[in-house]
Amino acid sequence: MTITPQESEVRNWATSFLPPASSPGQSLTLRTPGYVEIKPHTLSGIRSGLAQLGARLEKANLQSGVLATYVGTDSRGNPLSKGVAKYLRVYAVVVNAKPKPTLAAYNQPGRWHYLGFTKLEPTMSHPPVDHAPAFGWAVEPVVQQRVKLAVALATPQRKWTTAGGPAPGPDMTYSELADFYRELARELRDPLYAELASELEAMADREVA
Questions:
Q1: Does residue 105 share a domain with residue 183?
Q2: pLDDT at 70
Q3: Domain check: are 110 and 185 in the same one?
């Protein structure tokens, strides 16, 4: 049986970070605000995610963010490079803004967290795994939900904000809402978001007082 380079890459990266024997739970706690980028768990996907996340962190002057990755599998958990996936494996790694993130620095199993194994419901319509980026857009909400369940935020006031599909900006943000809208205003150059951020900040100050 001939294995294509793409299939070899998918199998290698999907099995490099094997899940623990027990349920992963909340194995990762985020203590500073940041962004989450979601990419396929392949060399090319991780390389792209690191570059994109690094640029966003530098622009927003943030310390770190998270790269969340996914692998579509069959019913037995075998990674797929084509065909319709039955389940999704989700991984995550904390990415520091400095030094500039590189693939070599993050190609280490000990740095990665396994966030769990999620069933793709039969009623959920999604394309085959090799139909990218359509497959990624279709399963992005599933990955976002897995991240919310498996990753803890150290500050109660910090909340998750999610985006969908090919929308501008990061796939997820974990910050106070005022901070999120302030960064969105800066990125989109939209004064309405800046005004909303100021209003939310004023409301928070009144609650503290």
A1: no
A2: 92
A3: no
pLDDT digits (tens, 9 = 90+) for 111-158: 888 888 888 887 677 888 888 788 988 899 999 999 988 888 877 666
**Residue 136 and residue 34 share a domain:** yes
- Chain position carrying tokens 């060399």: 43
Supply the pTM of this predicted model.
Answer: 0.76
Tokens of 39: 């990419």
Q: Residue 64 forms beta bridges with which residues?
A: 96
CA dihedral 193, 142, 18, 113 (to 10 degrees): 30
Structure letter (DSSP) for residue 8 = H
Q: What is the DSSP string of 36-85?
A: EEEEESSHHHHHHHHHHHHHHHHHHT-SEEEEEEEEEE-TT--B-SSS--
Q: So what's the pLDDT on residue 205?
A: 44
Asked whether residue 164 carries a pLDDT value surpassing 70, the answer given is no
Q: How far is CA 184 from CA 16, 54, 94, 178, in A?
A: 35, 17, 22, 10
What's the DSSP call for residue 164?
-
| Both structure tokens of 13 | 């990266």
Interstrand relation of 34-40 and 172-175 (parallel, antiparallel or unpaired):
antiparallel
Looking up tokens 């793709």, which residue turns up? 120
